[in-house]
Amino acid sequence: MKNILLKRNHIRSFVIIVSLIVLTYYIFVGIWPFIFNLYMSFSKSDLSGNWIFVGLNNYKFLFRDPVFLKALINNFMYLIIMVTIGMVSSLIIAGFIKRTSGLAKKIYIALFFAPVVTSLVAVSMVWKLLYYPEVGIFAKMILSMFPVSPPRFLADPNTALLSIIIMDVWKETGLRVIILHAGMEEIPESIYDSSRIDGASSITQFFKITIPLIRPQIIFLIAIYSINALRVFTQIYMMTTSPPGGPMNSTQVLVVKLYLEAFRSFKAGTGAVISLVIFILLFGLVLMEIKSFQQKWEY
Amino acid sequence: MKRCAIWLLALIFIASMVFVGIGCKEGAAPEEEAMVEEEEAPAEEISAEEVSIDLWWQDWPGGKLWIDTWITVFEEKYPNIKVNVMLVPFEELATKIFPAILAGNEPDVFMFYDTWVVNMDLTGVFGTLTPDLYSADEFNEKVFKQTLLYMYGSDNNIYGVPFSSGAINAGIIYHKDLMDEAGVDPSTIETWDDLKDVAKKLTKYNEDGSIARSGMSFGYLHTGYLLNDLIAAQGASDKLFNQETGEWNYNIPEAKKSMEIIKSFVDEKIYNPYEGDVFTAFPNKLIAMMNLGPWALGAWVDQYPDLELGYMYMPKIEGTDKNVHATAPFACLAISKRLEGDKLNAALIFLREIIENPAFYDIPIDSQYWVGLPGSKAYIDNLIKLAEEGKLSGNKAVVEMVASNYLPNVELIPSKLTSNELQETLIFQEMQSVFLGEKTIDEMLDYLTTNATLKEQEKM
Questions:
Q1: How far apart are CA A204 and CA B411, in angstroms?
Q2: A58-298 under CATH 3.40.50.880, yes or no
Q3: N or C: which end of chain B has fewer CB within 10 A?
Q4: b/e string for B236-269 if b means 16 or more Cβ within 10 A?
Q5: Mind telling me how many Å the CA of B163 is from chain A's nearest CA?
């Protein structure tokens, strides 16, 4: 009995100490930077690192800045278009791959996954060249096939953001396909057999059986890629850096705006406000994700 | 066993946090040392057998060649001073320097651009150059006065040495072979109307009538500055910006005329606003001429060695006498505020040689990797003298032509906005909206008035 009590005390002490260490780490890495960021959002700094309290000035000027509002809109457009195109294309590809087997299946999965493991910076630079007006490969292909005006891609404010989204969808499709395909593989074949007996076509099976039963994977991917869409930076900055934010700010997004304000204009206070906005949007998305996972589905 | 591993990890974590704290404390100490440094007046002698200074320098092909060659020359003259160069890409230079200063680990000497520090008090940030390097009066004699505008701290000391300018919108770079092909002599271009006539002859079209090659292009990098330059050239800087109230007013006839001049190139199908990145388009001859600094003459030599490029000074607007350059960014050098003793003396000697030794500017101008206009008055005055004696040719003739027109005509608008805030992310974006037909000129000028004023007053 005495030994059991002693052991219990040891375990309790151990848990407390380890918890303290983890908490300390989290305070340094998570809580303190957040609190300091909040302070920065109400302040202005000079190059010496002195901070002057300015109240809501940073918020006032930022929310009156049309470029910030444009960045917010662009981010939401990026989210909606990228997630929609990405999920639809990945579902279709995963569905097709499920119908294959053996070596062919493995090859397809490897081919689709290859862009996922490639450096985003390298991919962005290559696609920037592919998109080049007149002399880029895409422009030449389109001009050789269709009698249209030379496509402008990144140089046209109407197509710049969509061009980057297409690149992003291409790059990340492999990961989505693998996750969705894994979900599809878990569906018992007997359900498909029963539905076939009932006269269901392949398309009906896909919409009535496959998609409902891989809903957790779909929601997970929508949540993850929505978060990625709100934090998008590298591909936007690499592909539309002249000028920053693309033609007529058509590819201006929140993180690019944060970078320009905080690191190019040395307005850390304004950058702090933008990071808070991003935090609030991401927090909302994560809450929605948690709520979705708590749902129970019955079929 | 598992518990032991966890305890060990915890100990390592705590130890690392302790050492991080020690590092931060060491960074804070030098402020006291800097105060002591200001009370002493170092006589520029190096007592040590060898002293080394660390230099951060922008990384670009011409710049690398320039600094490597210069350091060889410098170290031959001062064998007891060793210069360790770290090349930093332009984008990283902007984002590395100030965090390094705040962390207390900036290099001894570093390069930066004056437009990054507009409206910023450099006192206590960089090392003081007056009176140790030169007095304020001596500075105004040795470098062009206008270029020192952003180098003063709140204590009226000077904190940076402007040494070279890309001379934004000093003129127009062109393909010589395309000019010859079109049978055009660029020396006949004196006004913007002349420029348009020549550009028309250089423009090529696709079968569907779209532009295959722009006769004249207005690239993103410099065109945002061009609007204010054209307004200033018409003598309207005072109407454009009120320094006391921080109000910008683009709703003036001179601004409208400036935009109409540039937009006419779009309307008459000489300039294709959809051409994409001009730094790819121009060397690939998708553009025949564009507004760019004379540094571009050497910019593409490594990638496109067959390019034959020429440079002409910016033409005047009809009815005006001279071009006024309202923005003229200069590359500058500064020293760390933490320097003292031999290191401080070595850094000051390095800066003095850059201003006074003509070899520093001969290196880039004589080479194929052109880098821009020298900030040294003595050097430019000497070039002007040689030009008058008919002894100049090649790149030096171009430098003299541009410098003698450009530098005396720099009249900076005393705005507190950095180039990133005003020209790059506001003005050029709005100009594009006009070129692409999304806004009228009046709408654009109205927008600029409101938003430039908003940004300016945020900084007041």
A1: 73
A2: no
A3: N
A4: bbebbbeeeebebbbebebbbbbbebbbebbeee
A5: 22
For β-strands B81-88 and B211-213, DSSP reports them as unpaired
Task: Give the residue, B319 or A275, on which the prediction is more confident.
Answer: A275
DSSP secondary structure letters along B26-46:
HHHTHHHHHHHHHHS---S--
Which of A159, A266, A270 should be substituted to probe chain B, the one whose Cβ sees the most B Cβ atoms within 10 Å?
Answer: A266
φ and ψ at B111, to 5 degrees?
-100, 145
Closest by alpha carbon to B311, among B217, B169, B173? B173
| Yes or no, beta carbons of B438 and A135 under 8 Å apart | no
Q: How many CA atoms lie within 13 A of B13 on its CB side?
A: 16
What residue in B sits closest to A59 (Cα-Cα)? B458
Residues in chain B closer than 8 A to A155 (CB atoms): 274-276
Q: Which of B259, B197, B249, B265 is nearest to B229 (CA)?
A: B259
Q: What is the pLDDT of residues B183-223, one digit of tens each?
A: 999 999 999 999 999 999 999 998 888 888 999 999 877 89
Residue B275, chain A, CB below 8 Å: the answer is yes
The answer to whether B86 contacts chain A (CB < 8 Å) is no
What ipTM, to 2 d.p.? 0.77
Asked whether A258 and A230 are in contact (CB, 8 A), the reply is no
Could you give the CA distance from residue B263 to residue B260 in angstroms, rounded to a whole number? 5
Does residue B3 belong to the interface with chain A, where contact is any CB pair within 8 Å? yes
What residue type is assigned to position B249 of the chain? N
What is the rounded CA–CA span in Å between residue B219 and residue A243?
9
> What is the gyration radius of the CA atoms in chain A, in angstroms?
25
- Residue of chain B with shortest Cα separation from A154: B276
Partnered with residue B333 across adjacent β-strands are: B111, B161
Residue B80, pLDDT score: 92
Where do the structural domains in chain A lie, given as residue ranges?
13-57, 58-298
A44 — contact with chain B (CB < 8 Å)?
no
**CA–CA separation, A205 vs A211, rounded Å?**
9
pLDDT, tens only, A71-118: 999 999 999 999 999 999 999 999 999 989 889 999 999 999 999 999
Residues in B closer than 8 angstroms to A248, CB to CB, are 429, 432-433, 436, 438
Give residue A66's identity as a one-letter amino acid code.
P
Rounded to two decimals, the pTM is 0.82
**SS3 call for B93:** helix
